[in-house]
Structure formats: structure tokens, C-alpha cells
Recover the amino acids of this structure.
């Protein structure tokens, strides 16, 4: 049942360093697109002041549940089904939303759903954190991300590396203000917004 993602192994420490910095207060973190469940275990173990709620589409929940059962962490909640396209999210209010390597997988309508949902469920002052590759209007995309974008689109034409400016506009439309944008290893970014 347990799926293993090599990229999670590579990026979990650099992501954790950012999460430590921005999630200093106790509270609930809603993770969207938790994937294998490795990140949820790693972050919940390292950040015991947070209650970590992993979610994904239903077919991915068994792997997350298996990682969770093995870890036995009191602050790691049972995974819940959350499809970005569902009208009702299983979590109604949270201090933070985390979405790693998912914005370039789902369609643009899925990205719109993510920001609308985060704007709805985040408490005032709450944070939406995303991680992944992004384009920027003022500079060419890195060759590694150009290749990745081509690979994504060949696999599914609705996927693709998103333009930061488009995503940031969407954030603004949902009451989220840019709070940080940091370069990460392998031409990825950590970007986070705060609800006003
Ligand atoms: C590339 S994986 C990233 C998984 C994990 N966050 C990681 O970094 O390894 C993209 C994730 O998006 C999830 N996903 C795809 N469509 C979704 C949707 N409509 N709603 C919620 N999650 C979705 C997939 O199931 C998958 O877990």
C-alpha cells in the first residue's frame, strides 16, 4: 500500500526549513494533494506544534494511511478525501494550506479551485504555501523546467508549469497577499500568501 516518491526524499528537508520559518504558531495545516504521504509524516514529525491534515483524491488515501499508521504520530490526522473539483471541502477552517507539486499537475480550473478554496477556509492571517516550478514574466524558464513542462503537457495537455503572475493574480482575487517567494533547489520555488 505504501507508495514511495524519490522526489519527496529530495525536497522534504529544504521545504521543512521554510515551513519551520513560516509556521511558528500552533494550528491546523490542511495539505492538498498529499500524494504518497511521505511529506505528511516528515513534516508532522518535525513540527509537533502543528496538527497535520493530509488529503488527496480517494485513490491515494491508502498510501497516506499506511505511512501514517507506521509513523504513529499524535499530530498526524487520518487522511481525508479532498478533490479540488468537489464543491464541499472536508475542512472548513484552518490556519494553513500546503500544496506541494500539484499546481502544475491539475488543470488551470483546478488551480482556480485551490485558490478559491484556500481563500474560503483560511482564517484571517492564515497562510497558503505552495512548492514547485514556476515561470516568471521577466525571465526565461530554466532549461530543466522547459523540459519538465514539455513532459507534463505530453502526458496531459491540461498540466504545465504555471506563470507566477497568473497565480499571484488569482491569490489576490481570493484575498491572499504575497508574503514570500524563495528559490529552492532544482529550480523550484517556495511561494506563500497570507489571508488579510
Ligand atoms: C505530483 S503529485 C504531488 C504529490 C505530493 N504533494 C508530492 O509532492 O509528492 C500531484 C498530486 O496531486 C493530486 N491531485 C490530482 N488531481 C487532484 C484533484 N483534483 N484534487 C486534489 N488533488 C489532486 C494527485 O493525486 C497527486 O497526489
Amino acid at each position: 500500500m505504501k507508495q514511495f516518491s524519490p522526489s519527496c526524499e529530495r525536497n522534504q528537508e529544504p521545504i521543512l526549513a521554510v515551513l519551520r520559518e513560516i509556521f511558528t504558531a500552533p494550528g491546523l495545516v490542511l495539505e492538498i494533494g498529499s500524494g504518497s504521504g511521505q511529506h505528511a509524516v516528515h513534516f508532522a514529525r518535525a513540527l509537533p506544534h502543528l496538527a497535520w491534515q493530509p488529503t488527496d483524491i480517494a485513490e491515494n488515501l491508502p498510501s497516506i494511511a499506511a505511512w501514517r499508521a507506521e509513523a504513529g504520530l499524535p499530530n498526524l490526522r487520518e487522511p481525508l478525501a479532498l478533490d479540488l473539483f468537489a464543491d464541499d471541502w472536508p475542512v472548513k477552517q484552518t490556519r494553513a494550506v500546503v500544496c506541494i507539486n500539484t499546481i502544475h499537475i491539475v488543470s488551470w480550473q483546478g488551480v482556480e479551485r485551490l485558490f478559491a478554496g484556500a481563500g474560503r477556509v483560511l482564517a484571517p492571517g492564515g497562510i497558503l504555501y505552495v512548492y514547485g516550478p514556476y515561470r516568471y514574466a521577466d525571465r526565461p524558464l530554466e532549461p530543466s523546467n522547459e523540459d519538465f513542462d514539455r513532459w507534463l503537457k505530453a502526458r496531459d495537455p491540461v498540466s504545465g508549469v504555471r506563470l507566477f503572475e497568473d497565480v499571484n493574480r488569482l491569490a489576490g482575487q481570493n484575498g491572499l497577499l504575497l508574503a514570500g517567494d524563495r528559490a529552492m533547489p532544482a529550480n523550484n520555488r517556495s511561494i506563500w500568501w497570507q489571508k488579510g
